[in-house]
Amino acid sequence: MKRLPRIVLVPAMALLLALIPQVSAIADPDASCSSEDGIFWSVVWFDGSHYHYRLFDYGNYGEIKISDRDLNVNCGNLTNLAGSTTHMRKDPLSADLVEVGYDEGWDSIYVGHVFRWFYEVVISGTPIRHQGSWGSWPCTFPGVGNFMGFRATQIIGGSTWNLKVNCLDGSGDHNVGSNVAASFSGGVATAETYRFGGSNTGMSDDHRNMDYRPGDYSTWTNWTGGLCLQDNPGNNWNGYMYSSTEYRTVKNSTNNCPTPP
Fold first, then answer.
1. What architecture is the 7-20+35-251 domain classified under in CATH?
2. Would the pTM count as exceeding 0.85?
3. Is 29 exposed, middle or buried (0-12, 13-18, 19+ CB in 10 A)?
């Protein structure tokens, strides 16, 4: 997830606010609001002795818990301060990606935390972002502490993608991005946690029921474990695989990002 530079496309829809009572916010004027902390864990395969990142898969799905995090309110009103994504990376060393997930922000008028969906594509280092209005969802938003599904799936035979949101309310997947052009057709399925605003802010996260879509277009398949792809140094949070299909973050953990194979 990148913040600047970006091309922002905001749909014309009514502003609906998802307000959370008794919210927390961190006032920290010394924090760098333009600096992003990110944790990325990617699906792996096992060759009998070593784990390796899976390459050239055509989709990624995860159910992500809507987490209410400590935010740095000095970083701006109604801007993305934290969030999570279901993410496809072109390869482990590339910055090119396609992702769909949620942002969390701060509303100074209503004094509350607000949420929205977004998707983003990065092509040759340039991010293109599309997002909903704060509090606006294509289905019934389940609220903080509950899970939502996010899916990135390649359209067969090319490098365009569909990006989908599922509120797990029985209405199924909802396209928020259709035929979205990317720089690749297959990549590495990845779970992402991000934040802006410094080390006093939160990165709590939980992704479960994670599936990837193999490069032969066969059925969606459970993750078989994960390895850390990237963990910004000094962010005082770390990711770990709670199970082969569930990724979580923990504060001040000893589960540091292992060296990739």
1. Sandwich (2.60)
2. yes
3. exposed
